[in-house]
Amino acid sequence: MLHSEAKTKSQRSIHTIMDNTCVIDTIEPQRSQFSDTFEVRRMLSRSHKESQHFIVTLQSDVKRAHDTEVVKPFAELAIRGDNLHFTVNPNKQYPDMRVNRKVLHMIECSIASFMEHHFHKTVSIGDKTGRYTRMMWVE
Question: Cystine design at 59: which of 37, 48, 97, 98 (Cβ 3.0–4.6 Å)?
């Protein structure tokens, strides 16, 4: 099965989150936009730049999962070619939550920055209209 055909999960065990991912960024949107902190995590088993997979969790859900053993990812994203794609859609994971496009863009930018700095790979991300744009980072 190709990486792009792999099915994603709507739940992850706390052991997968704690043992097989690392936090690459935390995002704290304005409290008026969202009342929780996002943790952007990278799957440690993915070493090649073309097969990177990211899991975005809510910090409060990870803390709660120590009791329940299950984490419900806010979103999951994968690199496919030069594009960053949502493989687990936050609107489907949390249908009652009003997901702000600005927060999704912050998550995408965080991952694009990580890819550029750690893998020297430029990826395209969705802009506010859903179209893809190339992310170019200047230091």
Answer: 37
> How many angstroms separate the CA atoms of 108 and 116, rounded?
12
Amino acid at 133: T
| pLDDT in single tens digits along all 139 residues of the chain | 333 334 445 899 999 999 999 999 999 987 766 788 999 999 999 989 989 999 999 999 999 998 889 999 999 999 988 999 999 999 888 888 878 888 899 999 999 999 999 999 999 987 544 444 444 333 2
Cα distance between residue 89 and residue 37, in whole Å: 18
State the pTM of this model.
Answer: 0.83
Helix (H, G, I), strand (E, B) or coil at 123: coil
> Helix, strand, or coil here: 70?
strand
Domain count along the chain: 1
The answer to whether residue 101 sits within a structural domain is yes
Per-residue exposure over 55-64, b if at least 16 CB sit within 10 Å of its own CB, e if not: bbbbeebbee
